[in-house]
Amino acid sequence: MQIITGILKESYLLFNKMSPYLLFGFLFAGFLHIFLSPKTIARHLGKNNFLSVIKAALLGVPLPLCSCGVIPAAMSLRKEGASRGAVLSFLISTPTTGVDSILATYSLLGGIFTVYRIIASFITGTLAGLLSNIFIKEDFHGIEQQAPKCRMCHDEEEHVHGLGDKIKGLFHYAFIDLVADSGKALVAGVFIGGVITFFVPEEFISTYMGSGFSAMIIMLLIGIPMYVCATASIPIAAALMLKGMNPGAAFVFLVAGPATNIVTITVVLKSLGKGALVIYLGSIAVASLVLGYCLDLIWKRVHPEEIHHFIHEKMLFPESASIATSAILFLLILYSLRPKKA
Length: 342
Prior knowledge:
Elements: H1 2-35, H2 38-45, H3 50-60, H4 70-79, H5 84-93, H6 99-135, H7 143-146, H8 163-199, H9 203-208, H10 212-223, H11 233-242, H12 247-259, H13 262-272, H14 274-301, H15 319-336
Helix pairs in contact: 1-4, 1-8, 1-15, 3-5, 3-6, 4-5, 5-6, 6-14, 8-13, 8-15, 10-12, 10-14, 11-12, 12-14, 13-14
C-alpha cells in the first residue's frame, strides 16, 4: 500500500509539473493548425530532405516548449504534412533549448556553456532528422491530396472564416481533438513516470554520481526516462558541477533530460513508429555522449566563466496555477474518453 501511495503521489506531482506546459503546448498546436497554412508546412517541412530537417531544428531552438509541451505541437506538424525527419528534429531541438532556458543557462553556467548547448541542440535534432530520412522511407504526395481545403468545416469550396470562427476552431482542435488523440498515452506515460520517479529519487543523482565517462552514461540512463524541463534541469546540472562533476556529464543530463521522458517515448512510439523511436533515442544518446566528451576537452583548454552559486530552483508557475491546470487537463482527458455517439 505504501508503494502504491508513493507511486500515485509521484504521478500526481509529475502531472502537476507538466500540466501548464501541456496546456500551452496544446494551445500552440491549435494556433499552428488554424493559422499556419498546410501548403506552407508541406513546402518547408514535408520533404524527406536535408533542408526540411534544418528548418525544423531552427524552428524548434527558440521556442519555449518543454519535452511535454512540444508533444502536441509536433503531433500537429505531423498531421499537417511534416515528414518524420522534420518532426523528430523539432521534437529534440525544441525542448532542449528555448529563450527562457537560454537565459537561465547563461546566468548559472556562463556564456561558453550556453552557446555550446544551443549548438548541441541544433546538431542533435538535425542528426535524428537526417537518420530518419535515410532509414525510414515514406511517400509524400502533397498536403493538398491528404486534407480538405478547410480544416475547420471540411468544406472543399473556397471560402474564408472570420477571426471569431478561427479562434473557436483553434480551441476545439487544441483541447478536444488533440487531447482525444494523446490523452490515453499521456496518462499511461505519467503513471510510468511516477513509478520511475518513486524508485529513482533525485537524491540518487547527487549521492551516487561519479565523474568521467561513467558519469555520462549514468546521467544518460537517468535523464532519458525522467521528466525535467530545460530550465528546471539547469540548477541540477550547476549543483553537480559545483560538487566537482565534469561538465560533460552535466551536459549529458541537460540534453537527455529535457529532450525526452517516458511520456514523449510513449507518444513517439504510437505516432511515428518503432523505427522512429529507435532513431530518436539513439540520436539523443550518441550525440549527448559525443558532445559531452568534446565539451570536457574544450573545458580543459579555456577559462570559462565561474559558475554562479544559486539558492534553490524557483517555480515557474505558482502551485495554485499548477493545480488549476492539472484539474483542467484531467477534465479534458476524461471528456475525451466519453463514449462517442453513433
